[in-house]
Each structure stands twice: as structure tokens, then as C-alpha cells.
Amino acid sequence: MSIFEYNGSAIVAMVGKNCFAIASDRRLGVNLQTVATDFQRIYKIHDKVFVGLSGLGTDAQTLYQRLVFRHKLYQLREERDMKPETFASLVSAILYEKRFGPYFCQPVIAGLGDDDKPFICTMDFIGAKELAKDFVVAGSASESLYGACEALFKPDMEPEELSEVVSQALLASVDRDCLSGWGGHIYIVTPDEIREKILKGRMD
Amino acid sequence: MAPNIYCCGAGTAADTEAVTDMVSSQLQLHRYHTGRESRVVTALTLLKKHLFNYQGHVSAALVLGGVDCTGPHLHTIYPHGSTDTLPFATMGSGSLAAMAVFESKYKEGLSRDEGIKLVSEAICSGIFNDLGSGSNVDVCVITKGHKEYLRNHMLPNPRTYVTERGYSFPKKTEVLMTKITSLRERVEVIEGGDAMEEE
Fold it and tell me: What is the pLDDT of residues B34-86, one digit of tens each?
């Protein structure tokens, strides 16, 4: 069994009209045994950039610590926050640095850039970027997430509708994956506010 | 790679990306130093040196093409660092399908449009006959002092099953907790307030 599916995860990010949503499941398991049901996989870098780290939980947490460290150094030097595009390049560089002993994480990056243009991107565990206009998915439930998002996505959704679509896509997908589930965690980010929700799913 | 040199990559995506970015920056610095246009052989040597160093562990299979002061060039570079210099080249899992088209239809002295047509046909053969290749065709034409990058020159695989209506959900998601953080501070402007005292 793949090390990427050791803990189980599901992450999705979707673009709406001047906003984006990023969501994940809340399960942490060791293969089929559930260990925690309140695990955090989405991290806030600053108010307008979020990163979701799917894959091996321990590497996700280590990687997050390094990303926060590098972002803080950037803030001190530049006296501003990183743009999402810049942050994506940083993540890619940090992952490729470890080309022959990698972090077993597939990141999803979502943010609002200059003039609040939404940006989403994902990359593989050694930092090959993939930019998308509509949605990106990652984790052990990624196959079912692709299907759900492909069917449910519409361009230019308002924050409320986007929130519902992403929630439904996530909850429908994790029910088809044994390794992810136990509800969801979603952030809906607009230029004015961050709305964070904890979702109830099939708690079994 | 440089304004007059382009490169396509097959193999591990992160490796092709990283190796071409690294060599691009070396070429840029070299141009700043010499003040001359980069040569294709320079790019070729830098790429093969790196790949040979890593003994094939950096899985980048590249096709390198460009026009410089010594004329037009086309090369292929294998992950172990060996190179070929050819009149037509293919790389990647779809290379056999694409090469089959080249071998049967290539002739010397093709015009620009004939060249684009042949290359697109070869890539399409890779898209449809090789299971590891797919989606769209990009074409880049480099001539002396000029280049043309035709992104998504052909789109033979558009998205199927798109619904305009959208879906309505029978049940809304149950939310256990909501937290709202406001990003824009509300600033109240009081007009005609007491002016600050000055001494």
C-alpha cells in the first residue's frame, strides 16, 4: 500500500466569483484504523493564502512548519505578505529540494492575489506545479473528488453557492473512500471575510 | 530556455521542469556575461552534464530545438545524458507512435505550414494511440530572429458531459460550527468632531 494512503485524506479547492473555497476531511488513520477525527489538513499561511497538505500526516506537519518559517522570513525582509503565485513557487522549491528523499505530501494551494483574483494550484510530491482555472483535488479520495467536482462545478459561483457545492462534493466523495471521512473542514475566502465551517458527515 | 531556444520535456514532470529552469537561468547569466545570443549546443551541454551527473535518476527526456548564429538545430536528450542530433525527433511514451508518422511522412524542405501539420499529426498519433499521452497539441515554430508559440494549437479532446443547469441538492450540508473573520476593518469617519487640541 502506498505511503500516500497511510493516513488517508481528501482535499479540494474551488474557484468562485472573486472568491475561493478550500476543504478537507478530518480523519487521521493508520491504514484502516481511525486514530483521530479532528485532524487539520488545511493551514492558513496568511489571511489570503491557504495550503492543504494531503498524504502522510507527519510530513504534512513538518512541511507546514517549514512553510510558515520561510513565509515569516519573507515577511520580515519584504514587509508584506506573499502572493499566492510566489507561495506556490516556494512550496515547489522546498519539495524539489528533497528530490531523492521526498516529503510524501501532495499540496493544494489556494489564495487571493492582487486585485483579489482567486488562484488555485496543486503539485505532486516533488513539486511539479499544476495550475487550474476551476478546481483542484488531492488525497486518497482524489478520484471520487474529480468525479464529484467535474459534475458539480459551475463558473463564477457566489460564496454561498460555492460553499454548498464544495461541501457536497467533499462529503459525497469521502463516502466512497474508506480512508477519509469523519466530516469536513471548509474555508470560504472572499476579499471581505474568511468563513470557516466544520461540516457533519457520516460519522462512521 | 532562451528567446531563441525552446525545449519540450517527457518523463517525471518535476524533473523536466526543474532541470530546464536551472539551465535557463544559467543561460540567462551567460548572456548577461557575454552579451550574445545563446547557442543551442550550450543549452545541450549544460543539460546533458546535469543529467549525466545524476546517472539517470533525474528522469528528464527532452527535445531541444532552436535557431542560433550557426543555424537551426534539433536534439534529443535522454535521462542518462546521451544526446542525438536529428532532422526530426520524438520523446516520451508516445514517441513510437509519433515517430511512426515522421518516418512515413517526413521529407526535406518542408514549409512552415507543412511542418506544423506534420508535427500536429505526429502528436495526435501519440495522443490517440498511446495510453500515457493525451489532451491537447502545443506547437512552437522558431525561425531566425522570430518565434511563435501556438498554445493549444489543436483541442481534439474537449470536456464531455458539461451541464449548464447545475445541480440542486436534496439536503443541505449540516454545519457544526461557523467562524467568520472579517478582513476589512470598519473605519468610522466622524465629521465635525472635536479638533485635537494644540498647544
Answer: 999 999 999 999 999 999 999 999 999 999 999 999 999 999 999 999 999 99
Domain that residue A126 falls in: 1-197
- Is A70 within the bounds of a domain? yes
Provide the pLDDT for residue B166. Answer: 72
CATH at A65: 3.60.20.10
ipTM: 0.89
Contacts of residue A86, defined as CB under 8 A and 6 or more positions apart, other chains included, come to none
Side by side, the strands of the sheet bearing B174-182 are A135-139, A10-16, A19-25, A184-189, A193-200, B174-182
How many domains does one find in chain A? 1
* B180 contacts on A by Cβ (under 8 Å): 193-196
Q: Which of A92, A100, A194 sits opposite B181 (nearest CB)?
A: A194
Residue of chain A nearest B170, judged by CA positions = A168
**CB distance A191–B167 less than 8 Å?**
no
- List the single residue in A with minimal CA-CA distance to B172: A164
CB contact under 8 A, A151 and B57: no
Test B173 with A100 for CB contact under 8 angstroms. no
Residue A123 inside a domain? The answer is: yes
Residue A193 lies in a domain: yes
Question: Is any Cβ of chain A less than 8 angstroms from the Cβ of B161?
Answer: yes
- pLDDT above 70 (res B196): no
For chain A, residues with pLDDT lower than 70 are: none
Q: Is residue A202, in this structure, part of any structural domain at all?
A: no
Buried (b) or exposed (e) across A48-86, using 16+ Cβ within 10 A? bbbbbbbbbbebbeebbeebeebbeebeeeeeebbbbbb
